[in-house]
TrEMBL record:
Keyword Transmembrane helix applies: yes
Protein's UniProt name: ABC transporter ATP-binding protein
ABC transporter domain residues: 340-552
PROSITE patterns registered for this protein in UniProt: ABC_TM1F, ABC_TRANSPORTER_1, ABC_TRANSPORTER_2
Gene Ontology MF term list: ABC-type oligopeptide transporter activity; ATP binding; ATP hydrolysis activity
Keywords for the protein's UniProt record, in alphabetical order: ATP-binding, Cell membrane, Membrane, Nucleotide-binding, Transmembrane, Transmembrane helix, Transport
Domain of life: Bacteria
Pfam families tied to this protein: ABC_membrane, ABC_tran
Domain ABC transmembrane type-1: 25-308
GO cellular component labels: plasma membrane
UniProt cross-references to SMART domains, sorted A to Z: AAA
Membrane topology: Multi-pass membrane protein
Amino acid sequence: MKRASSFETVRKMLGLVDSMTGIVALACVLGILGFLCAIFIPVLAVYGGFAALGGSAFPGVRETIALLAVLAVLRGVLHYLEQLCNHYIAFKLLANIRDRVFSALRRLAPAKLAGADRGNLVSMITSDVELLEVFYAHTISPVVIAVVTSAIMVGFAGSIHVLFAAVALCAYLAVGLFVPVWIYRSAGDVGLEIRTRSGQLSGSVLGSLRGLREVLQFSAGDRRIADVKEQSDRLLVAQRALRGKTGAAMACTNALILMFSLGQLAVGAALYGTGAVSGEGVIVATTALFSSFGPVVALANLGTTLQGTLASGQRVIGILEEEPLVEENETGADIEFDGASVERVGFSYGGERVLRDMSIDIPRGRVVGISGKSGSGKSTLCRLLMRFWDVDEGRVALSGRSVRDIRTASLRDAEAFVEQDTHLFHDSIRDNLLIARPDATQDQIEAACRAASVHDFIMSLPDGYDTMVGELGDTLSGGECQRLGLARAFLHDAPFLLLDEPTSNLDSLNEAAILKSIDEQRGKRTVVLISHRASTMGVADRVVSMDSGRVS
Ligand SMILES: Nc1ncnc2c1ncn2[C@@H]1O[C@H](COP(=O)(O)OP(=O)(O)OP(=O)(O)O)[C@@H](O)[C@H]1O
């Protein structure tokens, strides 16, 4: 996927917050007022102390105590409201970004996602998107709050003496700008590395889970564990490096705060010596500086978190901006299915040619068998008929119209494709079937399952149609999964059925039942039937043999 520069990434991430400018501004105003309350509590206490000693006319002791109480309550309320705004922004945006990511994945599927590292995708959808919360809730408004609050405090220090303003300005720049930039630079690509490594680790664990049977069969457990351990160690090294930087940033920040506060006191003492400021001015200026680092300290840690946040932002934006290989057609024609044709089609995945000059006529109501050696492009042909990919040359047509010109939803309604592997969701059998037709009645579900010769099996399960299918579908046998896939296709009730090796995992009894169902479709539905089995091909009206990408 594409990678944008950090600056570009921030610009694009800010672009996503456009619709929420009002509430972001409100969060900033609340944050600034909250911090000012917090800062002026000790400052006011100093004034009150001087008033009690009789050194200051304003404010009086009583007024000071009342004001302190008001500021304390206000501080709490403002902070709460600011957090409320920030979390509203963050969660609204996260929901919005998740929605965009899922839409993007839908647009990219399946052509751009074939072969994609699924663990990495999972990690992107979950932790990357979550990490963006840091950007929206803890980056945008803190930056604005730090800049404005610091500017106000520089002005306040300046109202006592310009040198106090100069020290305050240097202090804020050092803590809020130089420390984060230094850490950001010295952390290098650790943030990106952590994101990438954690994605790889998820991929590896997910791969091991998916291939659990193979791992056990070939006693590859130790190797897989060693592999996961190695990846996890590498991730740990990167995380440690980042923690080291975070620790350094904190130590540096605390040292700078103390140094500048003492500096302010020293400058005050010198000014007091020359009579330029009063004793009260010195204490107030020093207290104001010491208590006003809150907003810039919030930025000090950005140097370390920003790396990870930007890395996540880059990955998420990369997906959002990825161009699909096949553009969905939303405005094209709706079709009544009336046969399909493959006309002088040439196709390659990337560089490797799979089909050349291929033509097949699939008349309505017929069962067309497709045979050919492994890798000759039979499944590819079905994917082109589904328009999962677009052809390079020639044309694939349904009802005389190129599939490119047909509205994609209408095309998918007309077709039901049963691939070699049926994916079952971690859900009940009923819900797994309803995906093909959400409004189907129990009778329709059962009819589809009878046609796919799986009804009796389902009824033999403890909870019948409500039985839960295990994660990854591995509580069912290959043949059961395959028959459930077929039942889905029958339930979808599309006029054009594409069946890729529908009987490869079945015993001859179940094969015969399925073939009988396919035979019953003749005249009602059009079927493309891919199979290596001569017994299965017996049901076809016509068999097309494909070899090296050509019909023979
Ligand atoms: N997504 C993909 N990206 C790149 N190459 C692919 C992809 N899918 C399939 N291929 C390649 O295209 C060729 C044809 O694959 P296809 O699955 O269409 O063959 P097939 O005739 O259905 O094989 P089989 O009978 O083994 O299922 C193979 O060489 C395969 O490696």
